[in-house]
Design goal:
single chain; about 180 residues; mainly beta; Lipocalin; 2 helices; 10 strands; globular
């Protein structure tokens, strides 16, 4: 055997080692079994959204069949609509959200930090304008609080622009 086939054999060997021990399901749907893709899974469900104690909207958070993306459909009682797609980006190893509202306002958030039941993301929306967004799950109530803060001075000072408490929507079976 010549040395020209050595890189190919090495590649196939490594590929085989990476697949070793995986079930067929894990091979077909790798995102379902990789924790990197689950950073916002605590947010999955049907929610009523409250601002300052008043219900202002609803949000449906679902996972794609393959498990690689999480989708949000958000609507307020005043007709505002928005949708987000959330995913783990293996290129920069950060969780990412693309938000699009009914006016085609688009914001791309990137992960700043995460831990269990917590995710912080940030977007640059102008020269010195930043938006910081956090999701925190309250383990006692199961509620998720989403906080958005804006900075118009490159992050020196911040001001809350949205604090929404997501409460699981009651279904007929759970009432």
């Amino acid at each position: 055997m010549t040395h020209k086939y050595l890189p190919l054999l090495l590649f196939l060997f490594v590929l085989n080692i990476n697949a070793y021990g995986q079930t067929e399901e894990e091979k077909l749907y790798p995102c379902r079994y990789n924790d990197q893709y689950k950073r916002l899974d605590f947010w999955l469900g049907e929610w009523d959204v409250y601002v300052k104690g008043t219900k202002t909207g609803t949000s449906s958070i679902t996972k794609s069949e393959g498990g690689c993306t999480l989708h949000e459909d958000y609507k307020t009682s005043k007709g505002f609509l928005g949708r987000s797609m959330n995913y783990y980006d293996p290129e920069d190893q950060k969780y990412t959200q693309i938000w699009v509202d009914k006016f085609n306002g688009i914001i791309k958030f990137k992960e700043v930090s995460s831990k269990e039941n917590y995710l912080q993301m940030q977007a640059q929306t102008g020269q010195d304008t930043l938006v910081n967004m956090t999701y925190v799950k309250d383990l006692e109530s199961g509620n998720v609080t989403q906080t958005l803060k804006n900075s118009n001075d490159g992050g020196k000072t911040w001001k809350n622009s949205f604090v929404g408490v997501y409460k699981k929507r009651k279904t007929k079976l759970s009432e």
